[in-house]
Amino acid sequence: MARGTGGWDESDVRVRPNKKGSRPRTKDRPAHEDAVTGRIITVDRGRYTAIVDEDTPQERIVTAARARELRRTPVVAGDLVALVGDVSGAPDSLARLVRVNERATLLRRSADDTDPVERVVVANADQLVIVVAAANPEPRTGFIDRALVAAYDAGISPLLCITKADLKDPADLLANYEHLDLEVIISRTAQAEDTGVDSESDDGLSARLAGNAVEALHEHLLGRVSVLVGHSGVGKSTLVNALTGSRRATGGVNAVTGRGRHTSSSALALKVNDSPSGSWIIDTPGIRSFGLAHVDPDRILNAFPDLEPGTEACERGCRHDNEAVNCGLDAWVESGQAGAAGPARLASLRRLLGSGMRTENRAHAKELGSQ
Ligand SMILES: Nc1nc2c(ncn2[C@@H]2O[C@H](COP(=O)(O)OP(=O)(O)OP(=O)(O)O)[C@@H](O)[C@H]2O)c(=O)[nH]1
Ligand SMILES: [Zn+2]
């Protein structure tokens, strides 16, 4: 489209003289023109592990420490950063991390729903894979709903992955989400007639997963950065290892990250097997729930598109929570417009709305959380 002002070129751009230009160079902050870009794979006790020159013959792992000028900017798995100094990646070399590039997305959580400090979990993820088991452990819709809120709030597409469908039919669980435009992958162990993918969990337990399920998930990971969340025991590490070829428990070391030695509980990015450049899984062992103190109640409602139209009948200022009088959502659900799962969905929404902080506390929380 033509620009409204028409016919600009570079000569129209006036370069303002830099007031600080006459200062002695030594007082200028270094421009770091020689910096290289790295993708943060994991963070452990003040050391930042980055991959540099990704998917080129020079690809290498560089360990870095943060520069003072970064102040308190959080740096997390998935961040793209500028590195200077010794970026050779040689044993015992240490680079300096001087800048964090602007993030496309930022997945955040608070420790619980009343904790004012928001924590940055993962940067630049395109997709949040919510892993729940059909049984053992029992699925909790509360966890799924929280993860959906966090995903929508961050502008990350959610994908629901149900594991262990060999133990129980997940139809009842899925009925909760049939009115949502939510993509679902169902995984299970291989039956006799299936092709299987042998994989081991991080605890060294082996499972033979149905090949078509692993393949379906693999397809969703191509060309994207996906972050996986799930409760302990749902089969997350079995899946991650099947998709990345990483086998931490048996001492196998992922060629890229050295996951075999990775013992901390921080997020870890792994390259997806047989995939185009830029396909990453970020496993989050430490994240098993999402405190939503940082999310605005209106945005919580966004994660319930099957209910949201019902709020058109609400009075202005309606909080739609358990104390709300004449909330349009009650009639919406009673009339069946949210389907059979409507009552359970509304109960889940109200649990999330009821547990959050009141708006008055939010401004303060944001200030604290920005650190
Ligand atoms: N029946 C069945 N078992 C599975 C399936 N996937 C994984 N498992 C088993 O479930 C157990 C737990 O799997 P993990 O991969 O360790 O689960 P996790 O989510 O990584 O759990 P943490 O390591 O505690 O975080 C292991 O014994 C797996 O072999 C499945 O689809 N069906
Ligand atoms: Zn309402």
Automatic annotation (TrEMBL):
What residues does the CP-type G domain cover?
114-290
Location within or outside the cell: Cytoplasm
A matching Pfam family: RsgA_GTPase
What residues does the EngC GTPase domain cover? 123-288
| Sequence positions that bind GTP | T163, K164, A165, D166, G230, H231, S232, G233, V234, G235, K236, S237, T238
Q: Name one GO biological process term.
A: ribosomal small subunit biogenesis
State the family it belongs to. Answer: Belongs to the TRAFAC class YlqF/YawG GTPase family. RsgA subfamily.
Q: What is this protein called?
A: Small ribosomal subunit biogenesis GTPase RsgA
Origin species, per record, is: Arthrobacter caoxuetaonis
